[in-house]
């Protein structure tokens, strides 16, 4: 899909290309997927618990995808605006629209305002629950601070985990008003750990440039301990998925496909990743979109089987 997105962007009018590159739509759906999957997990978990009709669930998931796409685009624009001087020092990013001077700062700000307004509209469509709207606003605020975190701390990936996984509460609230926070909170902790895993691998791409620029990352912080450190976060993620399945009364389908599939995928990633290889790190980061789908697939299969093939669905 990313290759098709790049072709689509390259065939667009030159001005539109710059706007789409600013939103990282040339890598679509890579970044959007990391925002979308946790919210889709949460919506499907809530639909399973509260016997939500399948067509209603599909509508909620599609709305969440639109919301997550806009939020990710807005986050990318914010990141590009605040990181313009840093991006000029990094080989991988210096040709982007803002640091290269191909797009003006004023144009970027206007685009950001439009994306934020669109995100707020989708938030209203996603859920009438005031919690969803407040969490969405919080997500935009966290996105705004994220580019500054690498200047202030060695743990910017942990902040990103707080930022991109707010959709869990929006996804749950889109299906049913949140009355018990246990399941979405535990899922949030697990997704936070997952974000640290893939974004720390991603941070390995810029280790040398980060040292030169004097900014921090968990890739630099962990250093030679990066593999065991990420293994610990993988255990946290797997444990949270297991706990969520237990408290939400999921069946064996979820535990085999979602939990087992995610565990095997993480094991493969951390056993084979070469942290010094740009190509391999990027491949492992991209593979996490598949991991997100595997988890959702198990949830959907569990939901469908219990909805349509059980004599006592949703007890």
Protein model, in words:
The structure is a single chain. With 315 residues, the protein is mainly α. It is built from 15 helices and no strands. The N and C termini lie far apart (39 Å). The relative contact order is 0.12. The mean pLDDT is 87.
Strand content: under 5%
Q: What would the average pLDDT be, to the nearest integer?
A: 87
Order of helices and strands, N to C? HHHHHHHHHHHHHHH
**What structural category characterises the helix and strand content?**
mainly alpha
Give a brief outline of the structure.
By secondary structure, the protein is mostly helical. Helices cover 77% and strands 0% of the residues.
Spell out the blueprint of helices and strands.
Elements: H1 2-10, H2 14-22, H3 30-50, H4 54-82, H5 84-87, H6 105-126, H7 130-152, H8 156-164, H9 167-175, H10 182-203, H11 207-213, H12 218-222, H13 226-247, H14 252-272, H15 278-308
Helix pairs in contact: 3-4, 3-9, 3-15, 4-6, 4-7, 4-9, 6-7, 7-8, 7-9, 8-10, 10-13, 10-15, 13-14, 14-15
List keywords for this structure.
315 residues, mainly alpha, 77% helix, 0% strand, globular
